[in-house]
Amino acid sequence: MQVVAVVALAVAWMAIGRGLFSESGVDPRFELEAGGRVEANFEVYWPFLLVISPLLLITGIFGLLPYRFAPGGTIVGAVIASLFAQRVGTKLYLSEYRPALAGRLDTSLGAACVALAAAFTAVLLHLYGNRANALS
User: Fold this and answer.
1) 3-class SS at 22?
2) Which of 29, 41, 12, 33 is nearest to 107 (CA)?
3) Pick the residue with more confidence: 67 or 25?
């Protein structure tokens, strides 16, 4: 289950990235002016590239290791991915500039929920699997 959680977390991360770097719309009314570009860089793109991506990479690698607390890192990664996707979704100027972004964010939220559910299932299987072995 932990591998499923890590794969779903990777899908969530890739969906955010593909949405952020998708084609811009053809409507010139929604072009970002200089202030909008700076705001988008500081609030969305730089945190994605410099904070979220390395953090999700570390939690994904940590999630594949055979440690007892590995699913906890995947849970944290899924929560971070879903919160970031929701935060990007509130930037309406960015959704107007990149029309495919809204659909990618929906995919990301769905994949983050799957990662969260799979990681919690891995935790429960680990806890109750050890309990069953201890009782035998």
Assistant:
1) coil
2) 12
3) 67
Q: DSSP string spanning 51-119?
A: IIHHHHHHHHHHHHS--TTHHHHHHHHHHHHHHHHHHHHT-HHHHHHSTTHHHHHHHHHHHHHHHHHHH
pLDDT of residue 63 exceeding 60, the answer is yes
Asked if residues 61 and 73 have their Cβ atoms less than 8 Å apart, the reply is: no
Q: Helix 101-135 and helix 2-20: axis angle, to 10°? A: 170
Cα 98 to chain centroid distance, Å, stands at 18
The amino acid sitting at 9 is: L
Helix (H, G, I), strand (E, B) or coil at 6: helix
pLDDT of residue 14: 94
Main-chain phi, psi angles of 31, to 5 degrees: -65, 145
42: pLDDT strictly greater than 60: yes
Phi and psi (nearest 5°) for 90? -80, -15
The 10 Å Cβ neighbour count of residue 21 is 13
